[in-house]
Amino acid sequence: MPALPIFLFTAVATFTALAILIVAQVVGPKRRTAVKEMPYESGMDPVHSARQRFNITFYLLAIEFLVFDVELLFLYPWAVAAHERGAFGEGHGVFFAVMGFLAVLLIGFAYTWRKGVFKWT
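RE: above sequence
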């Protein structure tokens, strides 16, 4: 049953998240202060105009995170299917297609690294 591991993973993740939320509500502090009530976004206090400019590095790093997040969304189902059918799946074509996909992502990662996206200076 290929759906059973995915169902179990989803069930355990959901149970764990709900358990953490419930424990945090029961055990956590409940004091309200002015600082806790203040809006907070992107690590900056909202004291200036909402039209304030951000450094382009922030956006490039966010896009890099999304690219690798989407990569995992594509690789996980492929890995489950490949595991069920053997090391390479049905033929070597699928394996090399995924390796090509990873190579394109690696080239993009090297490009952003070379451009200095990961340096916060």
